[in-house]
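Troubleshooting: if your tokenizer reports a length mismatch, compare your output against this known-good record of 208 residues.
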Amino acid sequence: MLFTVNELKSWFIYLNEVIQSKKSYLTDLDQAIGDGDHGLNLARGFHEVTKKLESKEYTDVGALLKDTGMVLLSKVGGASGPLYGSAFLKAATVLQGKESATPTELTSALEAGLDAIKARGKANLTDKTMIDVWEPVLEFLKESGDEVNWDEGSRLAEEKMNATKDLEARKGRAAYLGKRSIGHIDPGATSSYYLFSTLFDVAKGVNK
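Known-good structure output:
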């Protein structure tokens, strides 16, 4: 499996469709423990990403990821824009100039993205954030190498998203709620599940 420009473009277009359809749900999750703008912000941001990617021809995956990150940084408010934007900008540096990426190479790029998320958000595993999906999923991908069971990856991402319900938030607006944040699924973990599950669907070709 090689992730070409077309595959990655398909991923973001598909992710945008999912985000648009889940906008209200993400907003509801965020209203329970956050600012209530996660769904709206991401929907606006990925709509702009899709417009950008569809208007331009790319010859390397790094440039595509860079544009994605730049759009998210400039068009998305709240915490989600800087976090997702920084992740894709950092991932872009790893794949700069490459016409395609193997699963191992894409994993390395997304690991660099995770480092950027941690640096900007100052959060760690079990803090009830998007990291609770990103870190275990990337660990799974790293262990899998180029032979990835994409269905297993999706199941893991969903499992880790749902597990945030039992965590107490330690970062972001939700942290102010303390133990009252327990019992709610984290919206950032949810959008991260959508991000990875759509990527894995593209890898399987089921979005076509």
